[in-house]
Amino acid sequence: MMQVTTNAHFQSDLGLDSLDTVEIVMALEEEFGFEIPDNEADKINSISLAVDFIASHPQAK
After folding, report:
1. pTM of this prediction?
2. What is the C-alpha separation between 49 and 55, in angstroms, rounded?
3. CB 3.0-4.6 Å disulfide test: which of 8, 23, 47, 52 passes with 13?
């Protein structure tokens, strides 16, 4: 069984592909109510980076 941790990388640890990563970013945008620019979205490749980005964004609900 795979254990998901905050340090889990989307591709190497969780086996997600680039389309899965795009879908995660889209889900984050919908959930937290703001658009993530493509240049920032490209950097979000792990759970911890996603959490850090959302936590530091002033428009996050």
Report:
1. 0.82
2. 10
3. 8
Of residues 17, 20, 42, 52, which has the active-site annotation? Answer: 17
Return left, alpha or beta for 5; rule: phi > 0 is left, psi -120 to 50 is alpha, else beta.
beta
Residue type at 28 in one-letter notation: L
Quick check: is 17 catalytic? yes
- Quickly count: other Cβ atoms within 10 Å of residue 36's Cβ: 19
Q: Which domains does the chain have, with CATH numbers?
A: 18-56 (1.10.1200.10)
